Amino acid sequence: MRLLALAALLALSSALVACGDDAGEGEKRVPTPPRAVGAEVLEGTGTFPATVEHQFGTTTVPAEPKRVVSVGFTEQDVLLQLGVIPIAVTEWYGKQPDATWPWAHDLLGGATPEVLDSSDGFPIEKIAALEPDLIVGTNAGMEKRDYQLLSAIAPTVTSVPDSTPYFSPWQDQVLQVARALGREADGQTLVDRVESDFEAVADFHPEWKGRTATFSQGGPYDGQLYVYPAGLSTDFLTMLGFEITPGLEKYAPNVGEQALISGENVDLLEADVVVWATEDADMFAELQDFATVADLPAVKERRSVYTDEVLAGALYFITPLSLEYVLEHLTPRLEKAVAGQGPTEYDS
To answer: CA–CA separation, 312 vs 18, rounded Å?
Structure first.
C-alpha cells in the first residue's frame, strides 16, 4: 500500500509537469513534488535469543521483551515504529507529552510511559523499580560504568562499536534497536523506506544536487551559534542532494559535536541554502540581531529556511519517523529558499 501511494504521488507529479504545456499564455503551472507518504508501524515477532554487539561488548536478549525502557534521547521513535510501546522514555527537551513528539505520539495508543530525567545521570534506582526486561540506549551518551549498572538490572543494548556518545548515524541506531528486538530485517525495512522516500524527492529536484547547505540551531546560546558539521544530523540535507558547507568541523570541540561559531565567524555559514532551526518568533528575532547574520547573502537574498518548533525538533531527532515528518514539511520550504523566495519574517 505504501509503495503504491508513493508511486501515485510520483505519477501525479509527472502528470502535472506534462500539463504545464497546456497552461494558458503567461501562466506557469508548478508541479507538486512527491511527499512522504507516512511511516507505518511494523508489527512483528523477533527471533530469540538475540545477540547484539555494541561499544561495551555483547548483550544477549533471551526472549521477546515485554517491558522495554528507553534511556536515550530518541530511541522511543524506533521502538514505537516497530510496534513496541516502552514502559519508560527519557526526556530530552521540549517538554512534549510523554516525552514523545507529535510525529510519534499517536503510536503510544493511549499509553503513558514513565518519563525519566537523565540530566543528572541515569536514574538507576527508578529504572530498577520498573523491572524492565530490556534497556535500550543507543543515543544516550552511555559510559562503561553506566552500562555496568544498567546491565545489572536487565539486558542493555547501547550503540554500535566505535560510535560517538550521541547522534551516531541514524541507520546504525535503527538497526541496533531492531537487533535488540530480534528483528534486524524490520529495522532495515525502516531504513530502506526513508532512504527511498528521500531519493524520490531528490530525483524530483535534480537542481538541488551539489548545492551547498548549512544547518544551524535557530538562535545563539552563550554568544555562539551551534552549527552542524557534515555527517552530524545532516542526512536530511545530503539525502536530498545538498552538500554540507565544508570546514565547520574545525570549530567543533570534539568529534560528534556541533561547531561553535562566534559572532566574528558568522560568514562561515554562508551557503546556497541555510536551514535555521528556529522555534518561535522570539528566537527568530534574536537570530536576526546576532552579529552579522542579517547581512549574510543567504539571509538577505531569501535563501534561508526558518522552522517552527516541531519541525526543529524533527531535524534534531533524525529518526525514521521524524525524517518522514521532515520530508513532508521541509521540502516546500527548501523549494522556496532555493528559488530565493524564502521568508523575511517568522512564519510558524
So the answer is: 35
Nearest one of 52, 53, 79 to 68, comparing CA atoms: 79
Annotation: CATH topology of 205-338: Rossmann fold (3.40.50)
Q: In a 3-state reduction of DSSP, which class is residue 327?
A: helix
Domain-wise residue ranges, the chain: 1-32, 50-192, 205-338
Question: What is residue 232's predicted lDDT score, i.e. its pLDDT?
Answer: 94
- Cis? peptide before 49, omega within 30° of 0: yes
Pairing label, strands 304-306, 259-262 = unpaired
Asked if the domains at 50-192 and 205-338 fall in one CATH topology, the answer is yes
pLDDT band at 347 (very low <50, low <70, confident <90, very high): confident
10 has a pLDDT exceeding 70 = no
Backbone angles phi, psi at 173, to 5 degrees: -65, -45
Instruction: Give the helix ranges, DSSP H, for 20-143.
Output: 75-81, 102-105, 124-129
CA distances from 42 to 10, 39, 175, 196, 338 (A): 24, 9, 14, 17, 35
Grid coordinates of 164:
560517538
Query: Which DSSP string corresponds to 181-201?
Result: TT-HHHHHHHHHHHHHHHHHH
What is the predicted pLDDT for the residue at 13? 38
Contact present, 100 and 114 (Cβ < 8 Å): no
Q: Does the pLDDT of residue 31 top 90, yes or no?
A: no
Q: Give the mean model confidence (pLDDT) for residues 322-340.
A: 97
| Per-residue confidence (pLDDT) for residue 78, from 0 to 100 | 98
CB 251 within 8 A of CB 265: yes
Spatial distance between the Cα atoms of 17 and 146, rounded to a whole number of angstroms:
56
Task: State whether CATH 3.40.50.1980 applies to domain 50-192.
Answer: yes
Report pTM.
Answer: 0.89
pLDDT surpassing 60 at residue 6: no
